[in-house]
């Protein structure tokens, strides 16, 4: 029963901290634009990297990394 003397103030402190963090986020505009970040992942605004495109069959293979025990 004496544990309640510790748990009740601790829970009130945690609720107070959570409320303060929420108020800070609202005041600093964290909840102003909720739609754009969800659509950013669908936007394809960068050109593909030419290094990552399909290489030609006549192009040499890159050298193997040192210490590679494969093969």
Describe this protein's structure.
The protein has helices at 4-27, 36-40. The chain has 71 residues and is mainly α. The longest helix is centred in the first third of the chain and has 24 residues, at 4-27. The chain is elongated and about 80 Å long. The model has no long low-confidence stretch (mean pLDDT 80).
What layout of secondary structure does this protein have?
Blueprint: H1 4-27, H2 36-40
Shape: elongated
Count the DSSP helices.
2
- Sheet of most strands: none
Low-confidence sequence ranges: none
Order of helices and strands: HH
Proportion in β-strands: under 5%
Radius of gyration: 27 Å
Distance between the termini: 67 Å
Main structural class: mainly alpha
Number of strands: 0
In helices, the fraction of residues equals: 40-55%
Mean pLDDT: 80
Keywords summarizing the entry:
mainly alpha, 71 residues, 2 helices
How would you summarize this macromolecular structure in one to three sentences?
This protein has 71 residues and is an all-alpha fold. It is built from 2 helices and no strands. It has helices at residues 4-27, 36-40.
């Amino acid at each position: 029963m004496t544990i309640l003397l510790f748990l009740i103030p601790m829970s009130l402190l945690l609720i107070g901290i959570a409320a303060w963090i929420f108020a800070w986020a609202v005041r600093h505009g964290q909840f102003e634009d909720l739609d754009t970040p969800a659509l950013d992942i669908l936007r394809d605004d960068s050109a593909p990297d030419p290094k990552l495109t399909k290489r030609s069959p006549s192009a040499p293979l890159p050298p193997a990394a040192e210490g590679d025990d494969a093969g």
